[in-house]
Amino acid sequence: MAPWPAGAGRAHAQPVKVLLVESDAHGADDAAARLRRAGHLVERCHEPGLPAFPCNALLRGGACPLEGGDVDVAVVVRSRPWPRPSTLEDGVVCALRRGVPLVVAGRTILNPYEDWAAVVVDGVEGVVEAVERAAGTPPAAGDT
């Protein structure tokens, strides 16, 4: 999938509920801020500063953002090129298994999610537009 250029999106009338995943701690902070400023709702599998395991669903009193079935798009922000998922990226698999469209942002070279991504965007400058585009597209070929 070719990267989606920054600024190429359309206005999105309704807030999009986004599951935000990151390859490295705090790697998605800028993307989270951009999405919130655009009026979108951001949920995470792992709270910033906590370890990769356990995820929020396994924490006492925690919940999985995917359990409600209302996540519109999953976004993974990759801080470095790496051909395999990092331990913080486990939510990507959960989202794909539920048919949630995936946006891959950040350092997208050696992206292990290429076959499943609805939209790929280099960097995070275009993440809002990419999310809005993915919210209007069905899951990419290769989904289970």
Write up what this structure looks like:
By secondary structure, the chain is of the alpha/beta class. It has a single domain (17-135), classed as Cobalamin-binding domain (Rossmann fold). It is 18% helix and 19% strand. The chain has three helices and five strands; from the N terminus they run E-H-E-E-H-E-E-H. It has a five-stranded parallel β-sheet, sandwiched between helices. The chain is globular, with a radius of gyration of 14 Å. It starts with 16 loop residues before the first strand and ends in a 9-residue tail after the last helix. The model is unreliable at 2-11 and 137-141 (pLDDT under 50).
Helix and strand topology:
Blueprint: E1 17-22, H1 29-37, E2 41-44, E3 73-78, H2 90-97, E4 102-106, E5 117-122, H3 127-135
Parallel strand pairs: 1-2, 1-3, 3-4, 4-5
Q: Which features characterize this protein?
A:
disordered N terminus, 5 strands, 19% strand, five-stranded parallel β-sheet, alpha/beta, Rossmann fold, 3 helices, 144 residues
The domain count comes to 1
Oligomer classification: single chain
CATH homologous superfamily - what is it?
Cobalamin-binding domain
Strand content: 15-25%
Would you summarize the structure shown here?
The chain is α/β, with parallel strands linked by helices. The chain is 18% helix and 19% strand.
